[in-house]
Amino acid sequence: xxxxxxxxxxxxxxxxxxxxxxxxxxxLLHRVHPKTIASREVSSIKAHFVDVQTGRPRTDNILKxxxxxxxxxxxxxxxxKVVR
Length: 84
Description:
By secondary structure, the chain is mainly α.
């Protein structure tokens, strides 16, 4: 009888472990899905330009990015004029 209890306990442990592993695999598949990754990256970029708590734009980050874009465009314009 004791051996039957041990076997049944072992079978329960194996089943619980199998269920836990299946749940973990499902969570991993969700995390690595391309749409989930894209959504996470979009949220990260939005959080860089908009304060998550207040919803107000972060003008310092917006101005830095706009300045960088203007600088790159100006650089290419100057290089293009010099090459011609």
